[in-house]
Design brief:
With 113 residues, the protein is mostly beta strands. It has no helices and ten strands. It has a six-stranded mixed β-sheet, with no helix packed on it. A four-stranded antiparallel β-sheet has the order 1-3-8-7, with no helix packed on it. The termini are far apart.
Length: 113
């Protein structure tokens, strides 16, 4: 099983970032997926989640801290999860991970400065 995040980097406040998570080794389309993050010295924070349902019924949910400026999406044909975040703030600086209940990736760092 592999979950490989990418797309992080240094972003100016107010900017945007799109994170990707390429997966393999499990049936991606059948798994609910999430993005979680951990800032230095802080607890892990759930950021967003998306169900495994077909697109017509698919549901996304967001932490209050990112609601309204973030979009989680998935491409089951590519086994890939995405997170677009806009209006970035310094508080968004963290290591971002894609995750299922069983698997986590190594993460990608987003630094807002």
């Amino acid at each position: 099983v592999q979950l490989v995040e990418s797309g992080g980097g240094l972003v100016q406040p107010g900017g945007s970032v799109t994170l990707s998570c390429a997966t393999s080794g499990f049936t991606f389309s059948t798994y609910a997926m999430s993005w979680v993050r951990q800032a230095p010295g802080k607890e892990v924070e759930w950021v967003a989640g998306i169900t495994s349902l077909p697109s017509l019924f698919r549901a996304a949910s967001y932490a209050d801290s990112v609601k309204g400026r973030s979009t989680i999406s998935r491409d089951n044909a590519k086994d890939t999860l995405y997170l677009q975040m806009n209006s970035l703030e310094s508080e968004d600086t963290a290591h971002y991970y894609c995750a299922t209940k069983e698997y986590w990736g190594q993460g990608t760092q987003v630094t807002v400065s």
